[in-house]
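During data preparation, a discrete fold description was generated, as reproduced here:
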Amino acid sequence: MNREGLGAPAPVAPLSALPETFTGNRALDLEEGLIFEIGRAEVCGVDLPVPEGRSERLGGLRRAEAPDLPGLSEPEAMRHYVRLSRMNYGIDSGLFPLGSCTMKHNPRLNEKMARLAGFADLHPLQPVSTVQGALELMRQLSRQLLALTGMAAVALPPKAGAHGELTGMMAIKAAHRAHGRNRTVVLVPESAHGTNPATAALIGYEVRALPARPDGTVDVETVRAALSPDVAALMLTNPNTCGLFERDIVEIAAAVHAAGAYFYCDGANFNAILGKVRVADLGVDAMHINLHKTFSTPHGGGGPGAGPVVLSPALAPFAPVPALVEQDGALTLVETEGAPGAEQALGRMSAFHGQMGMFVRALAWMLSHGADGMRQASEDAVLAANYVRASLMDLLSAPFAERPAMHEALFDDSWLAGTGITTLDVAKALIDEGYHPMTVYFPLVVHGAMLIEPTESESKASLDLFIGALRDLAMAAKAGDMARFLGAPHYAPRRRLDETRAARAPMLRWVRPPSQAAE
């Protein structure tokens, strides 16, 4: 009997043996064309008559022909997007093991707070006298971030991690300029996030790569050998993208400062050290913090995000505007560089003050956890990652296994040698098991990398099921079950695409077929 007392479930036939349906649907797995294919030009969700005496106010800007948009009734539009949503995988669907991306549960309390009228209905151009509560929330958030990092200042405007990274590096460039230094080089370890060299190059720096040691970390002697009067900064991720804490980070920071350069720390992996390490004590000059990752706000799909950057005393004067200050007992925003409170500001990085909804969600998470809860969150995240790694090391191959992992477990593809199966095949087969795949082929310093970050959100039961799925896949690969992998995913709404063709010849827009154009 099964747990419902209804007897054992019937055996599942392979998809190829299942009968075809008239609609193309399989129960609640609904098949539907693109919205452009199912729409009709004559249908509209709103049908209003043209008012009498209407005058044209567009002049020569009026379109010569109607936009090529699908026509759908309201029920059709609603059903279309609900059906699409059922094809999505998100953190509310199950464990989201993306390595180096910290996809954790978003408590609904945070969502409720962000929807309070006093926050949700704000307009960025309101007079500051009418938004004192919102500004106070921003100040409280700033105080929390400074207490957690030990830094001197925080800039809230950046809209994402890479935007915060850009802000911090521009503050470094402004500081060098203010001191009359023309430095042109930024050092970036090979294990860094890809945005690090991109950010440095974007603002005009020459990027020089630093190799990692065999244990996956950066050697202080390698840094010293690369330092010169031309070096403006070192950009280092800690914990790094191999899931390891850079144990020589204090010595590295001292060497960088002795050479007259600044130390930028990529804070994307802050979830691993939250409440455990004050980055100021490590010698960091600037670090971005992803509120949408570490502090549990909605993440994925391109936003919204928030990437505040914390700054050391040496860089604090160069923080961008708008800057939050208190004047005559009231909070206000200094909007112009050079004004009192922003005399050396690097300029403006964002049209307004930042992502208010993300600020509310992050502060709600901080206050609901407290200092001890945030510390436990990072401890549990590290525990979960090490549990996953320890549970798979007898079947999968783990580089740098001599050192404990931080927030993520890293495996390479040497365990697949001789099987004819690749890391990508394993990731696709994991979709059939009901999971979003882990990060694959990153970091680049590990061949065929599989990077798993379970976060603190997952229970032991959840982790055990995920571990069991990976163990079963590993045993199937080693047993030569090629069909399970090479055709995967078998059960997704769409089968595996030709990724090489998709990358080289992407179809970025829908083109109306001649048959429809003729109609």
Q: What stands out?
A: Confidence is low (pLDDT under 50) at residues 1-10. Residues 13-41+69-87 form one domain. The first strand starts at residue 153 and ends at 155.
